[in-house]
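task queued by scheduler; priority normal; single chain, no ligands, no partner chains; default sampling; output format set to structure tokens
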Amino acid sequence: MESPYFFEGMDFGLDEGDPRATQGVDTPAGEMDWVLPEPPTTAGCTFLRPGQKAYEDRIKTIYNARTAIRPALFAMCETAAAIGKVISWASSKSLPFAVRGGAHSYEGFSGSSSLVVDISKLKQVSFDKTSKTVTVGAGATLSAIQTELKGTGYALACGTCPTVGVAGHVLGGGYGFLARAYGLAMDSLTSVRLVDPKGNSLVANASSNQDLFWACRGGGGGSFGVVFELTLRVHPVGDVDIFSVGWALPPDRAARVIDAWQKWAPQADNGITALLKVGKGAGQNVSLKCIGQSIAARTKIEKGLKALEAIEKPITPHSIQKVTFWQAFQKFGGSSRDPYFQKERSDFLPLLNALGIRQALQQIVAQPTSDIGLIFNAYGGAINDLGEDATAFPHRSSVSYMIHYYAGWDAPKLTQSKVAAMTAFYDGMRPFLPGKAYVNYSDAQLTSYQTAYWGKNINRLKKVKRTFDPGNLFQFKQSVPLV
């Protein structure tokens, strides 16, 4: 099984060597070249500066080289006390900073040309079978957590990308192949521990700092403090079915498959999570592939896939394979690296009408090369068990699925053309979509990011911000504002 982000034929424009070593990682125009004061000696913290091998190695772990920034200083914090001391020092010196965990922010919001408080070393994972929870350091990756749970009969409901850091993933939502069965990753969150603007540690859960806990479930990372530990419920999962079926069709026939998918997948049995990948095929054909995972009865997924096959004949009949959850996680994680440079955007929607489907497909086949791919992520199911104001994440019963616009490439010289292609594609879809977006797929081009990410919940988020960070110490281009 392949990664959901793999599109056959997408032009990466591969360069020799690793272009991140020399290009794409720099101080953006208009930002200061910081000369920082000497940081305080801090137990549990190692400071890294440009030129050091450890610094350069850390730079290369940044997921998206398109938006990477070389900071003047990395503060590699291993304890909450160290985080608190570094935050207090930065505040006293009026130094802007960013907080980084997994370094997967698509728009580089976990980067700064000044100071980066890096919590990637906070990666402990502890499973408690009695309470059916896992307590994790905020720097732990999704792969590390699922590895710890391997063989226990339990799993975390989360995404498939193995190198994603748990904190950012959970704080913004956390969609994955168990979401329709058990909710988003943040719906399993029971407690967070964080460092506040004064450098003190706080606990937020259902009984303490409830408003902050509400905000931490969907408000995104980096706006209220430095989360350093999370406790999440895990769920019983044994063997699962993974499935796929694909088509190569002209646009008018591909439209029939998309319409059938959007009417089936978000309404399917809660145990079934089906994605639809749409990209440029050979000639004027559209490539479509439905992939997913099911913990429902085999007959239910067979019925759904056969109904899609009845709409249009696939390239080959559908496949369903029973594997362990761990094997499924590995398969969907993919066996090859992701491209160095990426641009991604998103839309939540209830349904795409016939004109909207036609517009998407016309743009797909009109591409001179396979620049943009679409991933349709089915929502519904247990995601809708909570109301749209129950957490800061608002995209529940009012939407059926999310369109994830994806572009990836390796050659720095392609950046301008790839971003332009994405902008044109996204703009072409505006008449057909409500303008709702996913905070974890951060998009610096959004003109109204507050309502796109959070809808009506933005007003309560601002109130929480004014309560817990009245000085706006934790801020970046798309952080929760004070007013």
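post-processing summary
- The mean pLDDT is 95.
- Residues 8 and 18 are 22 Å apart (CA to CA).
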